[in-house]
Amino acid sequence: MAIKSDVRESRAPAGLVKTLRSGIGRVSEEVIEEIQNRIPEYARREDELYIKVLRTAVEQAIEGFLDRVESPDAAWDPEPFRMVGKGEAAEGRNLEPLQTALRLGARVGWRRLTEIADPLGLSPQCLYDLGETIFVYLDQLADAAAEGFEEARARAAGEIERRRARLLDLLLSQPAASPDAIADLAKAAGWRLPRTVACVALDDLPGVPAQGPGQGPAQGPTQGRRGAAYRMPARMPALPPDVLAGLERTTPCLLVPDPSGPGQAQMLEHGLRGYWGAIGPAVPLAAAATSLRWAREALELSRRGVLPRGLPRCEEHMATLVVFKDEELVNALAEARLAPLAHLRPTQQDRLAETLLAWLRYGRGAGEVAARLHVHPQTVRYRLRQLEELYGEQLADPDVRFELEIALRARQAVNRTFRAAGGRA
């Protein structure tokens, strides 16, 4: 889009522009030589195509300057230098080399003006006006290049995000995608393939209710799974760029590379402070979907109060996850193995179940069990005698003891959930 120049009218003699145009080739060569000598990023003398592009950019800049001097009120098209800025972004550079090149070009141009000032009879005021025109034009070239640079960077960042989102979908797909497809997309997304990964399932985002297809974020307080009104999050997770984020999935999730690496645990704790979720086990990259499945199951148990709130790690609660994998089966087991306690009062059931579980977990010594339960050893002995009367020889059977521990652990977790809910069934 053409824009109007804000360069004020020059007082240059009529023959000045004609004289300068006749020397564009020489000045262009001087500018290119200066740039290649002083800026390592542009010192590609053997690359003919690159030299051609550089010469075209320099000549366009000089022609644009002379057009300004000749017709200060004429519209100016900044698009060529926006394209230069986009090219810098594509090369992976920042704008510092280009800005240095612009300053070097202005220096060579000013030197040329001073050389012809006397022969053409340029007055000091005319030189001042031309100098101001150079500085203003230089700023506008830099602004145009910066616009193109930022536009290209934003577009590239958006494309990288889209590729990473597709990569996450591929990694979590069932059945698993081929290793070659994953490797190709990971390369395109600039993501290094790790040996192991762990998935994090998030309990919605803090303050963000679950959304259906086509639904936008709620405005103002909203009723969500936590049963209380809450607002949009103040911040998104602060995580390194190698963590793949699927925050808009039905169950928001993250995929963390090399989760057992140095500092990874602290990184997650810090980056997800204030978030509720669950961290799946570390698995090979091809099994990422398995890690997410376990994380989701742990998250559901956390919601129910079976696992602690915050960011419980599956690897620290594997027994509970296994026990609750098939609750109907566990309930049937508990009903059978805990039947000897069924006729007792609830408080008696609780005390004997607690004692029996401690006895199974920590050994058969009354002293150790008493220490774990914070009661007197004689109290433990009395309870153990009651259990022996209720269970008889069953407590000598290793298989029965194993099944009892499963049933009692499940009972303990359910009671914990019941208490967390305020004693409401």
Separation of termini?
Answer: 69 Å
Nearest-integer average pLDDT = 82
How helix-rich are the residues, as a percent range? 55-70%
- What sort of overall outline do the alpha carbons produce when their principal axes are compared? rod-shaped
Query: Based on DSSP secondary structure assignment, what is the total number of beta strands?
Result: 9
Structural class category: alpha+beta
In percent terms, what proportion of residues is strand? 5-15%
What is the CA-atom radius of gyration, in angstroms? Answer: 37 Å
Total helix count? 15
Largest sheet: 5 strands, antiparallel
Low-confidence stretches: 3-11, 207-234
Would you kindly provide a written description of the structure presented here, covering whatever features stand out?
This protein is α+β, with helices and mostly antiparallel strands and 425 residues long. It is built from 15 helices and 9 strands. The strands form 3 sheets. Strands 3, 6, 7, 8 and 9 form a 5-stranded antiparallel sheet that branches. The chain is rod-shaped, with a radius of gyration of 37 Å.
Summarize this entry quickly:
58% of the residues lie in helices and 7% in strands.
Task: Name the descriptors.
disordered N terminus; alpha+beta; 9 strands
List the helices and strands and how they pair.
Blueprint: E1 3-4, H1 14-22, H2 24-38, H3 48-70, E2 75-76, H4 79-90, H5 96-120, H6 124-171, H7 179-188, E3 196-202, E4 222-223, E5 229-230, E6 244-246, E7 253-257, H8 264-271, E8 277-279, E9 283-284, H9 288-304, H10 318-323, H11 327-337, H12 346-362, H13 366-373, H14 377-391, H15 398-420
Helix pairs in contact: 1-3, 2-3, 2-5, 3-6, 4-6, 5-6, 6-7, 11-15, 12-13, 12-14, 12-15, 13-14
